[in-house]
Protein 1
Amino acid sequence: MRFTSEQVLGDGTVEREFALADFPGILWTPSAASSSTPVPLILMGQPGGFGIRRMYPRLVARALSVAAQGFAAVAIEPPGAGDRIPLPGVEQARADLRRAISAGDRPGADVVDRLILPLVDRAVPEWQLTVDEVLDRPEIGEKVGFSGGVIAVGTRLAAIDSRIAAAGLFAGSYVPTVTMEEARRVTIPLHVLLQWDDEGNDRGMALDLFDAFASTEKTLYANMGGHTGVPRFAGEDAARFFARHLGSAA
């Protein structure tokens, strides 16, 4: 991990941009973080295809909220986004998905697989590499949470990486069949956010995925409204969830 810039934000949070392998990212650490008081880490997932620069205002707002709870946060450029090479076949799959939705049809499993799985297959190893590097820093503690989307990415990461202690997932994207199978291996505490009227999501598929998770502690937090209509208070409930399961400064 090579840091390329550093700045201190208004509340004392330190923001560092970095390069790792062939992708960039941003690490935020609260002012209280130190080797004597290491803090938990939140992995901030984001929608595929938008890019970290376009998402920056939302990411930094989330990071500052996380820092106020005593957590560090990290975000990485998703595969195929920003200046990264596009993922093969994804644009055609996205067009096929939109065509099916416009026609009032349910997108076929093949379309969903072609759209989501290339992202999952690339993103999960990159998240694991990021966790390797960030946890080597003395001011970062051992507890790690995943927050946000893409839900198939968060599901696989939670299924295969024992360092993920809790996950707050956004059910805002279609789910491949293999993700349903991976969900049965997820046993950590979960907080799943669902926008009930999400025009770009399959509500039934999201409910099936929630049912498939093997976690004995899992909460479905559903609100009326579309994909971008998440109420502000939903973040407060997610914050309480992470505080319960990750604590704060060690």
Protein 2
Amino acid sequence: MKEIEINNIKDFHNRLEYYRKTSWFKFRGQSDISWKLVPKAGRPPYSKVSDESLFFHWKRRAIAHLDKELKSDWELLAVAQHTGLPTRLLDWTHNPLVAAFFAASENENKDGVIYVYNPNTVIDNKTETPFALKDTKNKIGFHQPNSSSSRIINQLGYFSVHSEPALSLDDKSKNGQLEKIIIRKELKKELIFMLNQYGINYLTLFPDLEGLSKHLGWFAENYEFWD
């Protein structure tokens, strides 16, 4: 896997120019470089329980809280993912700035990373179900969700769908171009201030009360930064 090290804001902008002329690239930011590209349902302690079973029980109980127009399992699973249910989905985005936010917004004492992937396998959600890949090994497809939540809309969301929840997207399982942009921990704070100026922050990425509260908390923590 190709690795690109980012040491300053200029390096960051220069690297993004490489991805500007195509929409095929997908981006994912992680604030700890040691984390693997594994969905929540594949990580302990959630990996002890069937994610398909969890989703079945989620649908049964969540119906009272859901928009009745959400009908497909793809739409429902996307909502479940973005409200905290362990699933075999992993969040990605079309926007590298969104990925940069997630790479830099937490774990300030650790290097972050932006993964960049140009996938060859795209799932047709009209003919396939979210669990259609479960009978195959080491297969990861990509799914473009409908706009079933404001978070998906604002984050320009995409999902990788893993045939097994514990399957990591890496050099062995990839079917496409995969690389990583390393964000040094010393750069994280400056990067977050830059992204906020560009309109990428908790308030815009999480357009609800949680996002509002987190954004104002971040503003208070860094109050002395502004004149």
Protein 3
Amino acid sequence: MSRIRVAALALVREDRDGAALLVVRKRGSTRFMLPGGKFEGDESDAACLARELREELGLTFDPQTAVGLGRFEAEAANEPDHVVEAVVYRQAAPPGLNPVCGAEIEEIGWLALDDTADDPAMPLAPLLTQQLLPRLRATSPTSRSPSPGV
């Protein structure tokens, strides 16, 4: 199996309704995943995330406020016979955050961290379902109702 190396960001919004995770769906795909993407050349994690977030969502990335969650591996969501190797960071979404679909992003959504049931309207990538959501939900102090779209 071929490997795809990516950097991704678990951007968590906390408000009076609870905690929600920003997820994106790329054009031509069916599954939602964390924002981020493939490394170019010898980019650092921070450089890759800064570039991808700017291109995909019009967001800036501040590595000083992000916390490394670690390296994770799972079946690639949109590329058969590939494994994704992801270095993942977590960051709190600043108030007034307004991501917009850019580059190859077709849809943006906020996934409730307290919602443990699968939502057929928001199918998720294996990396999220198998590894990251259980970890994020275990450390989230609040809950939130689903809110697809931005």
